[in-house]
Each structure stands twice: as structure tokens, then as C-alpha cells.
Amino acid sequence: MAEKKQHTYVSADTNKPTSKPKAKKTTTTPSGKTAKEAAPVGNATAFRVAAVGLWIVAIVCEILAVLLFTGKLNWTFMNTLTLIIILLVVDLACVIAGAQFWKKANHIDPASEKNPLKFWLWNNMGVIVCAFAFIPFIIFALTDKNADKQTKTIAVIAAAVALLIGGAAGIDYHPVSQEQKQEAMSVLGDEQVYWTTFGKVYHTHDDCQALNNSDALTYGNVEQAIAAHRTRLCAFCAKRDDITGVATDKAVDEIGEIVQDAVDDAA
Fold first, then answer.
1. Whether 123 and 155 share a structural domain
2. Strand 216-220 vs strand 193-195: parallel, antiparallel, or unpaired?
3. Domain contains 163
4. Phi first, then psi: what are they for 253, rounded to 5°?
5. What is the average per-residue pLDDT within 191-216?
6. How far apart are the C-alpha atoms of 239 and 250, rounded to whole Å?
7. Domain containing 56: what range?
8. 137 and 104: one domain?
9. pLDDT top residue among 44 and 94
């Protein structure tokens, strides 16, 4: 029998290493409610304000880049193309940082699926802002007939690359709805869960087979896991605990079925 994996543990409350935490499960009522509320995980409004502030800076950088490119603004202390590239880089940095703040806010205070338009906008805001931060510049650059050909080529390529990078960074690959979060908190209550540094799911067991190759585990409650962008329950843990009604990772579900079939065949 394989030796159990030894993990190091990090508390989500302090972000510091600790000794192995004691297993903690909260008894739920038939309705799935618990008396103990989950600890606060952050201020969604503050994160959204920070995101909007960064995005405003990004748009300002784009406007300055357009003015420099079209010759309506002339800064003589540096080469114009160099200035444009610098502005596009700052633009990209602000777009990406803003998107991370916005996604963090969405996992703390997610939109409801009952309003499909708002749910879509809230979870795609990073991509939308990225488009506004680079596409107008690309259009201005491509349609400026007086621009130097080499300058135009370099500037358009730089903006297009920034658009692709910012768009990819702005996508929330694991969005969560208000209903999904409430369901997970209702079913799991204040039960202790675990997640890895780069994983996308949370686990109810630190000896889950999916964690065999993971050295460090962060532990906290399900609300903290979702705030950390772990929006799905591990399918292995869900099956082990016979948990239904909580979103699990479909890819993991499929892998779990394959593994279980292999185990059954071997038996």
C-alpha cells in the first residue's frame, strides 16, 4: 500500500505555515444551514473600485498613445515610438491588474444567474475593458495614412500582442454564480477544505488521491476557497462524501470515472 503523502499546511486566515490542522466539520441541519457563519474574505467593493481606477489609468494611457501616434501630442524628451510602446506596456499592466482585482471581487460577491446579462458582463468585464484599451488605438494606427510605415507596423503589432495577452488574463476561466456559492456554503457550512497553490478545485479531504503530488496545502472554509478562485469541489471528494448539489469540475469527474473503472477492472 502506498505511503500517505506528507503535506505542509498554510492557513488561509494568516497565509502562514502551520502544523497539520485538526479536521473540522460543522454539523448541518436538514436544510443544510449552519449556525456558524463563514469568516469574512475581503471587501468586494474595494476590489472593484481598485479595478475601475486601474482601468481608467489604462484608458488614459491609450488616449495619450493615440495622440502621440497622430502627432497631436509632441513630447520631445524621448523617441515617439518608444513613448508609445511604454504607454502600451503601462496600459497592459493596468488592464491585467484591474482584471485580477475584478475577478477577486466576483468570487467574494458573485453576480446572480437570475440576471443573465449582468452575470455575463460581470464575468467578462476584464476582456471588455481590454478591448476598449487597445482596439481603438489599433484602428487609429491602421487608418492613419500619414504615419511612418515602420512606426505603424511596430505600434500595431505591439498593441495587438497586448490585446491578446490582456484578453487572456482578463478571462475568468472558473466563474462562480451567487447561487453556486450559496449552495456550496449551505451544503458544506464551515467545514474545513483544502486547496493547492496552482489547483482549480477545493477538497474536503487532505488525503484525497488528487493531492498525492502536492506538497503544500492551504486550508480554510469553502468561502475562502471560492475567494481564492477554487470554485469547484473535487469530484473524488464529492463522491467519497456522497455530496450532491455542489458544483464539481467536469474534467475531474471524467478522470474520476476512468480511474474508478480501472480500479473496478483490476479488482
1. yes
2. antiparallel
3. yes
4. -55, -45
5. 87
6. 13
7. 44-170
8. yes
9. 94
